[in-house]
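Hello K.,

You asked for the raw outputs rather than the summary table, so here they are, unedited. I folded two proteins back to back in the same session to keep the settings identical. This is the first:
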Amino acid sequence: MLTVLAVSLLLTLVFEEGFALAWGLRGRRELGLVALVNILTNPAVVLLYYTAAGPLHWNAIPVTVVLEASAILVEWLCYRAFSEQVKRPFLFALLINLFSYGAGCVINLL
């Protein structure tokens, strides 16, 4: 499980830092915020997903929707409160998470 958590976090950091750069974020503070927000949300989402969809046998689709929506909400609040460069924090949190989730889905298909 630790390997899954580490790989998921590493890939998320790579994808979301790249997205943040493409969005126009610059500087250690802003890119550090993106990293910290993901360190806060990604392990919790992955662990809860594997707990709910695994041993509890809950349907993976609603579990994923609820967990990803929760991550977007937490990240939006963090960007809104702490970012000096993100002008539309909800849109940023939504798109950055859709991008990294979609990239993860593509990797899982390979």
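The second followed immediately with the same parameters:
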Amino acid sequence: MNFLNLAETNAPYMAELEEAASRVIRSGSYLHGPETKAFENELADHCGAKFAIGVSNGLDALRLIIRGYIELGKLRRGDAVMVAADTYIATVMPITEFGLVPVFVEPDPDTLNFSWSNALGILEANEQNGYPLHFRCAMITHLYGTPCWNLEVAEEMKRRGILIIEDNAQAIGAVASEPGFNGGRMTGNLADAAAFSFYPTKNVGALGDAGAVTTDDPELAAAVKALANYGTDRRYHNLYAGYNCRLDELQAAMLRVKLRHLDEETLRRRDIASIYASGIQNPAVRLPECFPDMVQVWHQYVVLVPAEKRDAFREYLAANGVPTDVHYPAPPYMQPCYAGFRPESETLSMRLADSCVSLPIANVTPEQAKDVALIINDFKI
């Protein structure tokens, strides 16, 4: 059993992928061509957004959203951004790159996502202290494929002039329990803008690097599109000092194939997650919550074990042929580059980082999932 084998992941679509690659090669159009335009339209239709812009990767998608809001005057250096304390560091990097101030929001203990109640508490404390921080944005992560959304709190943030950006790198195809600002429930179109990653390991993975931005805001869409192509709105006319963050035709063609199969991939992962949920009975292992009022897409299946048992647990599974991983071994604020943001005392995000273990889900068959559950049940506390 492999934790993840990308050749195996792509094998069912090989004929379609080869045909798409051949189509692009024969076309002679490798940038700004029909494949990118078609993929943008298909992604927008998928999540119900008015605009989708294909870009180079997920980190650049976040960077372009923030830079776009800066160019539109909606964000400025020194503004505070609430961001999940338990997320991949790429969620935080664009905040600090542009001189914004990250304020880490501790997770909800059930969803492990950005806690909306904690975020509201931070805003209320800031108000009581005379507004020392100027909150203008919240960056939410749909961690591991579980939607992170609370319409009531999100609307309160909107009334306070706070933009909400979705880091949807792990949750394409997920459906929230409540509608977003635009009436739909699909992640990627709940808030003001969303960033997608199509890194090869994602549920919709490119055969290289790729990303996208979605939004219903025409001004932001135009700014992102221009910034991603050297800041140009037309040839040799630079509105901004932009970047080279374009999605190429070959990756767009690959993603069109993979997006067509997203629903079946989601169903397959949900089946494996259901087998784990019903089969794993070891009291030392805390399973992730399943929420029947939403669609979770299980980018990762992350269990929690006592921190002092984690190494032994992983070694035991490896000895029995079950590979595991850790997503993520430290919160972003514990990395050397963000040492200045470290809390003075232990936090829930620290404890989660010390106890999380990712079980294989990407290439797992139902029979293998049942075997994994039995192996875990025999782990001695």
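The first helix runs from residue 6 to 10.

Happy to rerun anything if the numbers look odd on your end.

Regards,
P.
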